[in-house]
Amino acid sequence: EMDPGVIKAWHVHKQQDDIWFVPPSHRLLVAIKDIRPKSKTEGALMRFVAGAGNAKLIFIPHGVAHGAANLWSTPSLMFYLVNQQFSSDSKTNDEFRLAWDEFGADIWQQTKG
Protein backbone atom coordinates (compact mmCIF):
# COMPACT_ATOMS: atom_id res chain seq x y z
CA GLU A 1 0.00 0.00 0.00
CA MET A 2 1.32 3.43 -0.95
CA ASP A 3 0.12 6.56 0.78
CA PRO A 4 -0.73 9.69 -1.21
CA GLY A 5 2.35 11.66 -2.29
CA VAL A 6 4.76 8.73 -1.95
CA ILE A 7 7.36 8.04 -4.66
CA LYS A 8 9.17 4.69 -4.56
CA ALA A 9 11.88 4.91 -7.17
CA TRP A 10 14.24 3.99 -8.72
CA HIS A 11 15.44 0.45 -8.18
CA VAL A 12 16.88 -2.28 -10.39
CA HIS A 13 17.31 -6.02 -9.95
CA LYS A 14 20.34 -7.87 -11.32
CA GLN A 15 18.52 -11.23 -11.62
CA GLN A 16 14.94 -10.84 -10.38
CA ASP A 17 12.02 -10.25 -12.74
CA ASP A 18 8.90 -8.57 -11.34
CA ILE A 19 5.23 -8.69 -12.26
CA TRP A 20 3.20 -5.78 -10.88
CA PHE A 21 -0.56 -5.51 -10.59
CA VAL A 22 -2.55 -2.47 -9.45
CA PRO A 23 -6.25 -3.29 -8.89
CA PRO A 24 -8.66 -1.42 -11.18
CA SER A 25 -10.14 0.40 -8.17
CA HIS A 26 -6.71 1.88 -7.32
CA ARG A 27 -4.12 3.76 -9.38
CA LEU A 28 -0.41 4.46 -9.43
CA LEU A 29 1.90 6.22 -11.82
CA VAL A 30 4.46 3.62 -12.93
CA ALA A 31 7.72 4.43 -14.72
CA ILE A 32 10.30 2.08 -16.19
CA LYS A 33 13.62 2.82 -17.93
CA ASP A 34 15.66 0.24 -19.75
CA ILE A 35 19.26 0.61 -18.60
CA ARG A 36 20.40 -2.78 -19.91
CA PRO A 37 23.51 -2.38 -22.05
CA LYS A 38 22.97 -3.41 -25.69
CA SER A 39 19.26 -4.09 -25.17
CA LYS A 40 17.02 -3.40 -28.19
CA THR A 41 15.21 -0.86 -26.02
CA GLU A 42 18.23 0.53 -24.14
CA GLY A 43 17.46 4.04 -22.91
CA ALA A 44 13.71 3.76 -23.48
CA LEU A 45 11.54 5.35 -20.79
CA MET A 46 7.86 4.57 -20.27
CA ARG A 47 5.43 6.06 -17.80
CA PHE A 48 1.78 5.16 -17.45
CA VAL A 49 -1.05 4.98 -14.97
CA ALA A 50 -1.70 1.46 -13.70
CA GLY A 51 -5.11 0.54 -12.33
CA ALA A 52 -7.58 3.39 -12.81
CA GLY A 53 -10.36 1.10 -14.01
CA ASN A 54 -8.10 -1.06 -16.17
CA ALA A 55 -6.62 -4.40 -15.06
CA LYS A 56 -3.14 -5.15 -16.48
CA LEU A 57 -0.09 -7.09 -15.41
CA ILE A 58 3.19 -5.22 -15.82
CA PHE A 59 6.25 -7.37 -16.53
CA ILE A 60 9.54 -5.75 -15.49
CA PRO A 61 12.60 -7.74 -16.58
CA HIS A 62 15.79 -7.69 -14.54
CA GLY A 63 18.06 -4.80 -15.49
CA VAL A 64 15.16 -2.39 -16.06
CA ALA A 65 14.91 0.48 -13.57
CA HIS A 66 11.41 0.90 -12.18
CA GLY A 67 9.35 2.81 -9.67
CA ALA A 68 5.89 4.05 -8.78
CA ALA A 69 4.26 7.17 -7.38
CA ASN A 70 0.89 7.78 -5.80
CA LEU A 71 -0.10 11.21 -7.07
CA TRP A 72 -3.68 11.00 -5.86
CA SER A 73 -5.42 11.72 -2.56
CA THR A 74 -6.15 8.15 -1.39
CA PRO A 75 -3.88 5.19 -0.56
CA SER A 76 -3.29 2.76 -3.41
CA LEU A 77 -2.48 -0.93 -3.54
CA MET A 78 0.04 -2.80 -5.65
CA PHE A 79 0.59 -6.54 -5.69
CA TYR A 80 3.77 -7.98 -7.09
CA LEU A 81 5.22 -11.36 -7.93
CA VAL A 82 8.90 -12.18 -8.36
CA ASN A 83 10.81 -15.08 -9.85
CA GLN A 84 13.38 -15.13 -7.03
CA GLN A 85 13.13 -14.77 -3.28
CA PHE A 86 14.47 -11.46 -1.96
CA SER A 87 17.52 -11.59 0.31
CA SER A 88 18.83 -8.67 2.36
CA ASP A 89 22.20 -10.41 2.73
CA SER A 90 24.76 -8.07 1.17
CA LYS A 91 26.46 -10.97 -0.65
CA THR A 92 23.28 -12.11 -2.41
CA ASN A 93 21.30 -8.87 -2.49
CA ASP A 94 19.91 -8.53 -6.00
CA GLU A 95 18.59 -4.97 -5.73
CA PHE A 96 20.33 -1.67 -6.17
CA ARG A 97 18.84 1.78 -5.95
CA LEU A 98 19.14 4.98 -7.92
CA ALA A 99 18.08 8.46 -6.84
CA TRP A 100 14.34 9.15 -7.17
CA ASP A 101 15.13 11.90 -9.71
CA GLU A 102 17.88 9.99 -11.57
CA PHE A 103 16.05 10.44 -14.88
CA GLY A 104 14.46 13.80 -14.05
CA ALA A 105 12.05 14.87 -11.32
CA ASP A 106 9.35 15.71 -13.88
CA ILE A 107 8.74 11.99 -14.51
CA TRP A 108 6.89 11.89 -11.19
CA GLN A 109 4.66 14.87 -11.96
CA GLN A 110 1.03 14.55 -12.96
CA THR A 111 0.44 15.37 -16.63
CA LYS A 112 -2.29 17.88 -17.32
CA GLY A 113 -4.23 17.82 -20.51
Describe this structure in words.
It is a single chain. The protein is mostly beta strands and 113 residues long. The protein contains no helices and eight strands. It has strands at residues 7-13, 18-21, 27-34, 45-51, 57-60, 64-69, 79-82, 95-97. It has a five-stranded antiparallel sheet, with no helix packed on it. Strands 5-2-7 form a three-stranded antiparallel sheet, with no helix packed on it.
Write a concise keyword list for the protein shown above.
three-stranded antiparallel β-sheet; single chain; mainly beta
Tally of DSSP helical segments? 0
Number of strands: 8
Secondary structural class: mainly beta
Question: Which stretches of 5+ consecutive residues score pLDDT under 50?
Answer: none
Structural topology:
Elements: E1 7-13, E2 18-21, E3 27-34, E4 45-51, E5 57-60, E6 64-69, E7 79-82, E8 95-97
Antiparallel strand pairs: 1-6, 1-8, 2-5, 2-7, 3-4, 3-6
Task: Summarize it.
The chain has 113 residues and is mostly beta strands. It contains no helices and eight strands.
